[in-house]
Amino acid sequence: AGMRRLGHYCIPLVADGKAIGVISIFLRTRCRRDPGRERFLLPIANAVAAIVKYKRTQMRLYRTNEILERVFSSTNFLIAYLDAECRYIRVNQAYADAEARSPDFFAGKNHFDLFPGREHRRIFADVIATGRPFAAYAKPFASAGRPGGQVTHRDWSLHPVTGVTGAVEGLVLLLVDVTKRTQAEEELRRTQTALGEARRLSDI
Fold this sequence. Notes:
This protein is α+β, with helices and mostly antiparallel strands. Helices cover 45% and strands 28% of the residues.
């Protein structure tokens, strides 16, 4: 309700049961409290409160999207966003560079047309059906965009994106190239094996 004070009405802006601001209306002359005027002003205040809430939410979403866009574009992680039919919606620059392609090349293409594999189809289908994420480590990948299908090793994970009904509407594929680490570990294993053999021969 409004409050008269020296020709001044204060109407609170309320959204979700919380005051988020106030409308101050200054009148040219003193006036008595007018319930009719207050009934007229209250819906206006409610409408303004809804607009203020919407604008604040919009600004928060804008800032959040701006941060996510910076992370998406600048990270060295390979990121792809796919729909529930495993068609690419968007990939970041790192993902495209790893396949010697441009990001636009992937849009609309099915993941399994570029990377066929029965095991991967099963994993993708299981994540879509159950809504549970999947992760694997140092898995070999044959590149679709490099001569000879060069094999790289990547840690990768698949995360479902659900809608309001709980159904999976998309997938986020996240990969980290660990080829050099895998090669170093393999070299270390070969060296340790050679050293063990050398010790055995020395003992003999």
